[in-house]
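Weekend entry, working from home. Most of the wet-lab plans are on hold until the incubator is repaired, so I used the time to fold the two sequences that have been sitting in the queue since the last round of cloning. Logging both here for the record. First:
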Amino acid sequence: MGSLFDDRIGADVRMQMVANLQIPASDKSAKHFDSPPETLSATGLASCVTQLRTAALFDVLALNGKMKAQNFLAKDPTEWNDDPSYQELKTAASKMKVASDTAERAIVLMQQYNSSLTKNEEQKQYLIRLVERHRKQYPTGAKSTLLNTGSEH
């Protein structure tokens, strides 16, 4: 998706990306390969843009993003930079943060969650001890465990 807004990508590759957006999704999942994927070159980049994978992402970038994308996708890629819709979506895409893997995203989410609970270090430590005590008391999160141990207390 970001490659549509990357000035280093040539007009010919962008035109192929636009063409790929028009191809209806096939029954075959895009996640399955018949053979190992080749190293991605600039021209191979166009194959990553498909109706199934890409079109909905325009709406993630902006309200009515698909409609806005149609404004510049109908033009020659050399004219995209002058299109207000292209500029809006490009700005939105450049502001998106990309996490390279699940662990990194989990760490960021936990840091955000942790800082949203309290800024007071003493309170954070109390919450950590409380969660630890709860996990010892209820080792599994199963409903049956909670119901059985809840009646004993």
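Second, folded right after the first finished:
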Amino acid sequence: MKKIIIISFICLFVFNNLLFAHDDKNIHPSITQKAAQNSTFDVYLKNNLNFTDGINTKLPTNGKKVLLDWLKDGSFAEDSPMCRASNHFLDPIKSWDTAAMSDSPWWINVYCNSWSPYYSTVTWATGFTDPASTPIPYNPYNEKSPNMWANARMLYYNALTATNQTTRENNFAQMFKALGQTMHLLQEVA
């Protein structure tokens, strides 16, 4: 009996990638791609922002990525590093400042200790700990900083008002990445 238990645990660790129902590398980017392709987003980009190729517009124009790639990159980036995902939970019965993940296994708390405190997905997406609070500041150089909706809006404004083409295109690219991260959070709530 002991041998069977030991062999079972070894198999669990060796073949653990077969046991997870959630694939953090493909699922969110795929959902984001489908959402972008099956909505009026492409038409909006063409008609309102003059992106003639819509979701297939290169950003920056001399780069290799198209707009859809930036959305998918953001959707993937929201789970990297792994401890970012500790901020993707919500207990809707509690207030925003206490609605974060509270029942994580001890090993996640140990591994992600430097990420404490955890925020609810609503706080992580908006920056607000309650409807009337001052938002958490965004820092693009800090992986523990939420790339939230307000940041996407700021980048959008910067892209629309930039006088330099390169600056405008870079702001649009980063805005679509931030939008992809926000889409990831919306998918998690759904």
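Plan for Monday: verify the second prediction. The helical segments are 2-14, 27-37, 41-48, 67-77, 106-111, 121-126, 149-161, 165-189.
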